[in-house]
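Lab meeting, item 3. Inverse folding demo.
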């Protein structure tokens, strides 16, 4: 059903919270320091997708976190290190969670991180296969919410994918490269700004095929346009409604008068 085995536990904990505080009630002030987790282990058995994930050698550190007025504009610096499915993962952050700006800077460090298991979690139905792709990156992701403007999300730093192999849904080769390297200079996806200072491809190969319908195989990797998807969904819904109406009509009893009328169709009245 898409839920996990902790769903009922979280529901019970939420029920213990009691009444919600009034909207105008002042927040409860707190200050907590020296939060540490060492050598933790988390296993996730995703039975919906048939994938098992393991977060091992988990280390979490939070020197302090506080919403006291004198601490609101001081950066909280949490960190997380682990091996996710055997691949090294390191996250270091600087954040002001209780400031108006919610300013946050996150450093993401990955080395030869296997991307192939994560295709199953794309928000779209993938029309391709990714049998090989290893991600190495040291990207800085920053976020802020100005009081008088839209939120700002930006990325900076290098990103590299090694041993990239891309196939279509039938497993036919489409593209490959030993290395694909990008350098983000000022990427702000929320406003459509894409500024790169470096793009490098090592031994790229593209298998371009013209299909019988005149299209190209690489175009089949892209998700269908929203209008086309909506049209197909509408067509399926209309067909389902028609089938349902026909089934309901077939189950209705036939009145005797109607039967008699149908039986008399085509008969010739006797001459006077």
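The presenter then showed the designed sequence:
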């Amino acid at each position: 059903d898409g839920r996990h085995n902790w769903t009922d536990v979280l529901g019970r904990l939420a029920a213990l919270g009691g009444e919600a505080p009034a909207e105008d009630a002042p927040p409860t002030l707190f200050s907590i320091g020296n939060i540490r987790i060492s050598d933790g282990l988390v296993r996730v058995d995703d039975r919906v997708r048939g994938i098992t994930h393991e977060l091992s050698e988990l280390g979490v550190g939070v020197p302090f976190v506080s919403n006291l007025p004198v601490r609101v504009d001081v950066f909280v610096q949490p960190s997380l290190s682990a091996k996710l499915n055997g691949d090294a993962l390191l996250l270091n952050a600087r954040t002001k969670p209780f400031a108006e700006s919610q300013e946050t800077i996150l450093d993401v460090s990955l080395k030869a991180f296997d991307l192939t298991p994560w295709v199953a979690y794309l928000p779209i139905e993938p029309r391709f296969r990714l049998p090989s792709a290893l991600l190495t990156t040291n990207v800085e992701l920053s976020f802020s919410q100005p009081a008088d403007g839209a939120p700002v999300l930006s990325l900076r730093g290098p990103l590299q994918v090694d041993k990239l192999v891309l196939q279509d849904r039938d497993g036919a080769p489409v593209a490959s490269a030993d290395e694909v390297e990008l350098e983000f200079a000022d990427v702000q996806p929320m406003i459509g700004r894409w500024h790169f200072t470096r793009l490098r491809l090592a031994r790229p190969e593209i298998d371009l095929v013209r299909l019988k319908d005149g299209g190209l195989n690489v175009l089949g990797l892209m998700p269908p346009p929203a209008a086309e998807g909506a049209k197909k969904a509408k067509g399926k819904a209309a067909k389902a409604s028609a089938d349902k109406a026909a089934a309901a009509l077939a189950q209705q009893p036939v009145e005797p008068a109607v039967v008699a009328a149908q039986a008399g169709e085509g008969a010739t009245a006797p001459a006077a």
